[in-house]
Design goal:
This protein is of the alpha+beta class and 491 residues long. It folds into 3 domains: 15-182, 2-Layer Sandwich (Beta-Lactamase), CATH 3.30.450; 234-328, Signal transduction histidine kinase, dimerisation/phosphotransfer (DHp) domain (Helix Hairpins, Orthogonal Bundle), CATH 1.10.287; 331-484, Heat Shock Protein 90 (2-Layer Sandwich). The protein has helices at 15-67, 77-89, 119-125, 177-228, 241-290, 297-327, 341-358, 377-393, 452-462; strands spanning 93-98, 103-106, 130-134, 139-153, 160-175, 336-340, 362-367, 372-376, 400-407, 411-418, 466-472, 476-484. The strands form 3 sheets. It has a 5-stranded antiparallel beta sheet. The protein starts with 14 loop residues before the first helix and ends in a 7-residue tail after the last strand.
Length: 491
């Protein structure tokens, strides 16, 4: 069995189409139900009235049957005339059945003398009036007991009393053709009204769909203008609450895009500046050597050392940029493995020991518990190295750097505290920006590219971790890194 491919019906994906269909169906169903209810109610009411009217006539006629003792003698012209009149009036048929279930009179003249055995007749002889409507064949069948008052004795047989008992049954069938005809007329009129209602609902549905979708079309138009570059102004469509929310959300995205674009432009400018500075220095040094004749060997060596330093600086910037680009890739690039964090920190501190020794800075390591975590060893090594190296570079002479490793049931933490120069409060929120240097006056003295913390934060975020800094200018800085013990890949 083939399934319907709704992708072919693209118009069903339109919000305008869906609103139209919903409003149209909601308006159409009540009209159909109302038409059916009106016809059904009329039919039930008409049948009930007809039964009530005929039942009254039948009771009167039943009394005449008793009065004229018609069950014993069917020759009464008065009763026969009444029976014929009733049959003609209601376009029906009347059968008179005695207590022996024998048909003594049939207005159609085809069942006289026959025995009529049916549940309705027997129940009527017991005193019950039975009526039923056969809508399929278009007639109403009614039974009316013929009650005769007779004198009977009581249980002791000493005193005669009067009692009512059914001595016969009138089985009447009356036509409902006029009800059917009236229902046909009423049905046609109801159909006309229903068609008019459907047309009105169709028009209202179209207008509702047009009006309700109009604010979204405004949003789409505004988005198109932004996409085409005609405007960068915020979108504001206050027609309804939903469009306000969409506009607010887009404005936030637009603002974020502007920030990212400004950041990108600033980043390109900073990259250009940082890469151009060493090249300019190398050019100046080379031109100085080229413009002089008979340069002493000592000066030549000094210039070459300066050129080599600038080349190293250029190389470091390029390497950091490449590392930063790798950090911007998806987290699927992580090479996750079980790593002994305590051992890793010890190795890094041992490797950075000579740098700290040059400035007489004491390295202190404290492990509060053994930690093994699922991390990318290369990237976590980069994180720890950058933080400790920065703590050494931006420290005071004869200062200290303390590294503390701890963990709980879900995260492990690495705290790097120092007694350095600290970070001014106004610079704290910018330290993770690319090429941002806090101490610009010492940017030449302190080696660095301004990319270290940006790389560090990127590696931490790839591990679904966090980094926090607390610093007091002139007193020192503490960086705290928290990373999950178990790596959970985001699909």
């Amino acid at each position: 069995m083939r399934k319907l491919n709704f992708k072919k019906f693209k118009f069903l994906k339109s919000l305008k189409t869906r609103i139209f269909l919903i409003v149209f169906i909601v308006g159409l169903i009540p009209s159909i139900v109302m038409r059916h209810a009106i016809l059904t109610n009329y039919e039930q009411r008409a049948v009930s009235v007809r039964m009530s009217d005929v039942q009254i006539q039948l009771r009167i006629l039943a009394n005449h049957l008793v009065t004229y003792r018609y069950l014993q003698d069917t020759s009464s012209e008065v009763v026969n005339a009444e029976l014929a009149q009733l049959s003609n009036l209601y376009d029906g048929r009347v059968l008179i059945i005695n207590d022996n279930l024998k048909v003594i009179k049939d207005t159609y003249g085809i069942s006289e003398g026959k025995t009529m055995i049916s549940e309705e007749v027997i129940r009527c002889l017991r005193g019950e009036n039975v009526s039923q409507y056969d809508a399929a064949n278009g007639f109403i069948e009614m039974t009316t007991p013929i009650i005769d008052t007779l004198a009977v004795s009581d249980l002791k047989g000493t005193k005669p009393v009067k009692g009512d008992m059914a001595s016969g049954v009138m089985l009447t069938s009356i036509s409902t053709d006029y009800i059917t005809a009236t229902m046909d007329v009423l049905g046609r009129k109801a159909l006309v009204v229903e068609v008019l209602v459907i047309i009105a609902v169709f028009i209202v549905s179209g207008l509702a769909a047009f009006i309700l979708v109009k604010p979204f079309e405004k949003i789409t138009g505004a988005l198109s203008n932004v996409k085409e570059g005609y405007t960068n102004d915020p979108i504001f469509v206050p027609d309804c609450l939903e469009t306000e929310h969409i506009g607010d959300a887009f404005n936030k995205v637009l603002s974020r895009m502007k920030v990212l674009d400004d950041s990108r432009q600033e980043f390109v400018s900073n990259v250009s500046h940082e890469l151009k500075t060493p090249i300019t220095s190398i050019k100046v040094l080379a031109d100085s050597l080229r413009g002089q004749e008979g340069v002493p060997l000592e000066v030549y060596q000094e210039f070459m050392e300066d050129i080599a330093e600038e080349i190293d600086r250029e190389n470091k910037i390029i390497n950091d940029l490449l590392a930063l680009i790798k950090m911007d890739r998806a987290a699927s690039d992580l090479n996750i493995s079980q790593v002994d964090i305590n051992l890793l920190v010890e190795l890094i501190m041992r490797r950075l020991g000579p740098i700290a020794l040059k400035r007489d800075i004491e390295l202190v390591y404290e492990s509060l518990r053994s930690v093994t975590a699922e991390v990318d060893e290369v990237k976590i090594t980069l994180v720890i190295t950058n933080l400790i190296e920065n703590a050494i570079k931006y420290n005071k002479e004869h200062g200290w750097v303390k590294v503390t490793v701890d963990a709980d049931y879900q995260y492990f933490s690495i705290e790097v505290a120092d007694s350095g120069i600290g970070i001014p409060p106004e610079d704290v929120e910018h330290i993770y920006e690319r090429f941002y240097r806090v101490d610009k006056s010492h940017s030449k003295e302190i080696d660095g590219t301004g990319l270290g913390l940006a790389i560090t934060r990127g590696a931490i975020l790839m591990h679904r971790g966090s980094i926090r800094v607390v610093s007091e200018e002139g007193e020192g800085t503490t960086f705290t890194v928290r990373i999950p013990l178990t790596y959970i890949a985001v699909t």
